[in-house]
Specification:
This protein is α/β, with parallel strands linked by helices and 199 residues long. Helices cover 35% and strands 26% of the residues. It has six helices and seven strands, in the order βαβαββαββαβαα. Strands 1, 2, 3, 4, 5, 6 and 7 form a seven-stranded mixed beta sheet that branches. Strand 1, helix 1 and strand 2 form a beta-alpha-beta unit. The two termini are 13 Å apart.
């Protein structure tokens, strides 16, 4: 099997490597706008599907296949993560002002992190949505100013990264830690087995 990660996220790549997966990276370019009336779980699942489909189509069209791997051995993994508070999806902040507003919304409360996953090979596809509850402690204005100054949250959903400096803000999680980072790697073996059976 040749596994391809349809993402430019260094965090997803790190999670896959740490779990012992060998893979290539081919980032997917898809429109990440939320559609009217779209629920958070529908949103992350749709984007994961679109990413895996886009990269598989690109690779098939350009015949990017190693000579020792037949096309049927190519598996594309797409994923998308969203932070959700009171049913509202918090994406990546446009600037530090928006990041600060997001952190104030998350301060002292529980929120959900949802990751949609899609694995695709040929015409077969399998996927899921994993949810983790995250509890953030009360943040003071100086906490937020310090974190914004670090720049760490600028490219992250919800304006924070649990694996970095923001770990000091998280008092508890219920569910998969890897899911909050960006990919529930513990779910992958079962998904890949299901995909192989579907093929």
């Amino acid at each position: 099997m040749r596994l391809v990660l349809a993402s430019a996220s260094p965090r997803r790549a790190d999670l896959l490597r740490a779990a012992g997966f060998t893979f290539d990276i081919v980032p997917a370019a898809v429109d990440e706008q939320v559609r009217a009336g779209e629920l958070p779980a529908e949103y992350v699942r749709r984007l994961a599907l679109e990413k895996s489909a886009a990269v598989l189509e690109t690779m098939a069209a350009s015949a990017v296949q190693p000579t020792n791997n037949p096309p049927g051995d190519l598996v594309v993994l797409g994923a998308d993560t969203a932070v959700v508070v009171e049913g509202e999806i918090l994406g990546k902040p446009r600037d530090d002002r928006e990041a600060g507003a997001m952190l104030r919304r998350l301060s002292g409360r529980r929120h959900e992190v949802l990751t949609g996953v899609s694995v695709r090979s040929g015409s077969a596809e399998r996927g899921l949505v994993e949810t983790t509850s995250v509890y953030m402690r009360e943040l003071r204005d100086e906490d937020i100013a310090w974190y914004l100054g670090s720049g760490e949250g600028r490219d992250k959903a919800g304006a924070y990264g649990i694996q970095g400096l923001a770990s000091r803000f998280i008092s508890r999680i219920d569910g998969s830690y890897a899911n909050v980072v960006g990919l529930p790697v513990a779910d992958l073996p079962a998904l890949l087995s299901a995909l192989a059976s579907a093929g």
